[in-house]
Write a structure and sequence with these properties.
By secondary structure, this protein is α/β, with parallel strands linked by helices. The strands form five sheets. Strands 1, 2, 3, 4, 5, 6, 17 and 18 form an eight-stranded mixed sheet that branches. A hairpin with a 4-residue loop joins strand 14 and strand 15. The longest helix has 23 residues. It is globular, with a radius of gyration of 24 Å. It starts with a strand and ends in a 12-residue tail after the last helix. The structure holds ligand NA7. Ligand NA7 binds next to helix 5.
């Protein structure tokens, strides 16, 4: 039976897949996109837990390339809720007429490179097909990380992970347990506390959080953004974290204690975790003494906000302020409610499930109607390790990444020709939509160049046979090794290295520590991509094979 053949095959319908599909169809290629979900949205399709919100401000949590849409499309608040982001992505899909290329409820089961025919043989839950280019847009955070707790089978309540929160699930008047107090946990806890009969928060390590300062967008503010949108994106794309504010270069200890306190207070009032980490001082992520000043400021805030000193003690982190920073809409205040409790898992770990809840080491059986795991993700390579992607000589990506997940520029892997990852391991750490755009533009450039070469007549005459040349876009081993050690070097002075989190893969039990990102900033990353392109794709083997 004949199977479908495409020029390009895209996996994932989040920000990355949507933009990649858009670009490839504009190149005139035949493209198919699949996603396991029932519709577009990626992360924003799955993460439907109460309180789910982007912690990047609305005006830069979107695509930059459709300036008319940017100016017209509504975003009534400074932060977007999950439903708002999902509606935006649905809107882009319809506006760009992309739905006809998309197939939902379809899972990628495996992909094998056929070296003889120069195609990828793709197996999905709905059949087989081939494509000359395979692009994965799986998302950085898509493989849920469940906690290992014994006896889960005897628990009679509901067990839910926030990354697949059931639609319309009511928590009203339930005894709820939340495991995990990271970005997801703090949003969830803040949102559900008023509804739950009782809420027990099981916290392994406390984190620093600052107010988001979410509020409606005023007409004046929106008019200002609309007038300046081009300039705003120029700034975002040349900045470090790409969040729409100027990053500071001032060392924290270069100002007096009083001035530092006022600057922290102003940033606290203005809101946003990334602004707090990068917008006031320029050395909080590289200088421990500077970092401590931020830690102390936030700890003092926790002491002031949380009225029960025992709860405040548990909520106060003593580690460095050196994970992806959080912001909230009243997290610490939530612990002043009588129906909200906190358990310090470091001192008192969960030992097992019981029929009616979970038991902690102190012997207490916490009675729970539902246990919600806000325990994060097996990030970046975790999204790939569940799949069979086999390159040349049947080597799988998992084999290739046995020592550590690596790539050239976060998108290409030697031995895997014509395969591209959007935001694969060692891609840039920044606001995600502009990082995706940088990657997709680069990948599209690679494919466009390969397509040009493929169509050059074989004997150099206009009568030559076009369209049959073999092209393979493949990074060299050397380029991959160089880029990987560069990422490692860039991360070596970063304080993030001193804490455990998904950025180094140390949030998942048994996962080897390695830097999963380029921590050198969005602007420098874009510059690097541009230099590679201008040097006729330096770091890649010659594309043309015959
Ligand atoms: P995170 O940031 O990885 O947070 C997960 C939380 O779950 C964190 O508090 C973890 O504690 C906790 N956790 C993880 N495993 C366990 C086990 N086994 N037992 C108890 N507690 C556990 O994931 P999020 O979903 O909150 O956020 C991910 C990103 O999404 C975030 O950075 C934003 O970019 C959006 P730990 O701190 O590791 O001790």
């Amino acid at each position: 039976m004949a199977i479908d053949t495409y020029d390009a095959f895209v996996v994932g319908a989040g920000f990355a897949g949507i933009y990649q599909l858009y670009k490839l169809t504009r190149l005139g290629l035949s493209v198919k996109l699949i996603d396991e979900a029932e519709g577009p949205g990626g992360t924003w399709y799955w993460n439907r837990y109460p309180g789910a919100m982007s912690d990047t401000e609305s005006f830069v949590y979107r695509f930059s390339w459709d300036i008319d849409d940017l100016r017209e499309y509504k975003w009534p608040r400074h932060y977007l809720q999950q439903a708002d982001v999902l509606a935006y992505l649905e809107h882009v899909v319809d506006r760009c007429m992309l739905r006809k290329y998309m197939q939902f409820n379809t899972k990628l089961l495996g992909a094998d490179y056929d070296d003889v025919n120069n195609v990828w043989r793709i197996e999905t839950s709905s059949g087989h097909c081939t494509a000359r280019y395979l692009i994965t847009a799986l998302g950085l955070l898509s493989q849920p990380n469940w906690p290992e707790i014994s006896k889960k089978e005897i628990y009679t309540g509901d067990r839910i992970h926030t990354a697949s929160f059931p639609r319309d699930y009511s928590l009203r008047n339930k005894k709820v347990g939340v495991i995990g107090c990271g970005s997801t946990g703090i949003q969830l806890i803040t949102a559900i506390a008023p509804d739950a009969a009782h809420l027990t928060c099981f916290q392994r390590r406390p984190q620093y959080s600052v107010p988001a300062n979410d509020r409606p967008v005023s007409k004046d503010y929106r008019d200002g953004v609309n007038a300046d949108y081009e300039k705003i994106w120029d700034q975002v794309k040349s900045s470090f974290v790409g969040m729409g504010f100027e990053e500071s270069k001032t060392p924290a200890l270069s100002v007096s204690e009083g001035e530092r306190e006022s600057l922290y207070q102003a940033a606290w009032e203005k809101g946003n975790g990334l602004r707090f980490m990068f917008g006031i001082f320029g050395d909080l992520t590289v200088d421990e003494a500077a970092n401590m000043t931020a830690c102390e400021f936030i700890r003092r805030k926790i002491d002031k906000i949380v009225t029960d000193p025992e709860k405040a003690r548990k909520l106060k982190p003593m580690e460095l302020f050196a994970r992806r920073p959080l912001c909230d809409t009243g997290y610490y205040e939530t612990f002043n409610r009588h129906n909200v409790d906190i358990v310090d898992l470091k001192a008192n770990p969960i030992v097992e499930f019981t029929p009616t809840g979970v038991k902690t080491l102190d012997g207490i059986n916490h009675q729970l109607d539902v246990v919600i795991c806000a325990t994060g993700f097996d990030a970046v390579d975790g999204s790939y390790n569940r799949l069979r992607i086999r390159g040349r000589n049947s080597k799988t990506l998992k084999d290739h990444w046995e020592t550590e997940p690596c790539s050239y520029l976060g998108c290409s892997v030697p031995g895997f020709p014509n395969f591209f990852m959007v935001n694969g391991p060692k891609s840039v750490f920044s606001n995600i939509p502009p990082a995706i755009e940088a990657h997709v533009d680069f990948i599209t450039g690679l494919i466009a160049r390969a397509e040009e070469l493929r169509k050059v007549p074989i004997n150099g005459t206009s009568h030559g046979y076009a369209g049959k040349r073999r092209v393979e876009v493949e990074a060299t081993d050397h380029a991959e090794a160089d880029w990987s050690s560069h990422c490692d070097l860039v991360s070596s002075s970063n304080l993030f290295r001193k804490t455990d989190s998904w950025i180094f893969g140390t949030n998942v039990e048994g996962k080897k520590k390695s830097i999963l990102f380029f921590l050198g900033g969005l602007g420098p990353f874009r510059k690097k991509l541009q230099e590679v392109e201008e040097a006729d794709y330096e770091g890649y083997k010659p594309f043309l094979k015959q």
